[in-house]
Amino acid sequence: MDIKAIRGMNDILPREAARWRLVEDTARRIFSLYGFSELRPPVMERTELFLRGIGDDTDVVEKQMYTFTDKGGDSVTLRPEATACVLRSVIEHGLLNADPVQKLYSIGPMFRYERPQKGRYRQFHQINAERLGEDGPFADAETLALAYDLASAVLGRDALLMEVNSLGCKACRPGFKGALEEFLASKQDVLCGDCMRRMHTNPLRVLDCKVESCRQAVQGAPSMEAYLCDACRGHFDGVLKGLHVFGVRFERNPRLVRGLDYYTRTTFEITAVGLGSQNAVAGGGRYDDLLSILGGPPVGGIGFAFGMERLIMLMGEVQDRVSGCFVVAQADPAVELAALGLIAELRAAGIPAEAAFGRSFKAQMRRADRAGYPLCAIIGEEELASGTLTVRDMQSASQAKITRSGVIQEITSMLAENKGERA
Question: Considering the domain 325-422, what is its CATH architecture?
Fold first, then answer.
């Protein structure tokens, strides 16, 4: 019986990796512009962290977590999201003591047991950002602008729309939840089983249900905006003004809620064309109580997460171009030793280099072409005797003789010219 990958957990093959690297490199570049630093939490945490941080009534905790008892008898969970992990790390290592404002990002795999579908897998990857210690609306606006800039850098602004809402706070949300629960009581006959239960435990979650009958049922539901207190209304107005300044294209969506319980006030999603009903590529919001719930100081924060698989699905083809030199050597021990020395010298100078010893000249050239190297350095007995190299441009098939002593300078210059032509 053949052993295959677990359903919903996919290999990222070499031909696909170029797009992944591009997204990761783009994210790190954008984060550096905004002053964010990278934090790398472990992929496994104590289950209690997610029970306290995410909320017992969420689909993630109820249905999707990979939880098991380890050999020490502890309940542990493969991380289903990154926010709780990052905040646990901030608390454990006292990062807020060193700096009361923390701007952190992480990139890596998450795990949820759910039905695999387009852009959604059991092992999936997220780009995650958390901003702690700043409570004002302009901090929210800048964080949303960061998410928008990152998505724009990968997909282009024309493909994007940001939806924004306010979920209120402890002072104003109870009134809205009461009105929503009363409204949902009149819709019980069309709600799914999960929403029948949620309408009493966490009615806001009904607004996030993807079942079509539930989506139709909430069309006339009360709006959170009508119940916002003065402080939350002023905060939301400030966020919207900040987004205008940053040039973010957005729409207000009073039905927008997030799937996790810890969000307060600002919440948002970025949607993209080309994904059908599952069109969200990023989302997040403010969480003013989460740090204290996890045992930390009463410090608020805001964050977001990107689904990397969805970003990569929407990208165009990316050619993984190699910049370097393939070395082709005549099948002679003395020549091959000289080729080894050349490869070592090229790599020491930071120039990628590779060879395929023990094959015919034609086979080596085919390998150089398949590998995508722009240049090929050819060494035979004649070149070895004269202290020269023959360098072939693989795109134009033109060849030039260069001296062995000046190989680094010549190869570097030729690679620069080749890069300029491709650009």
Answer: 3-Layer(aba) Sandwich (3.40)
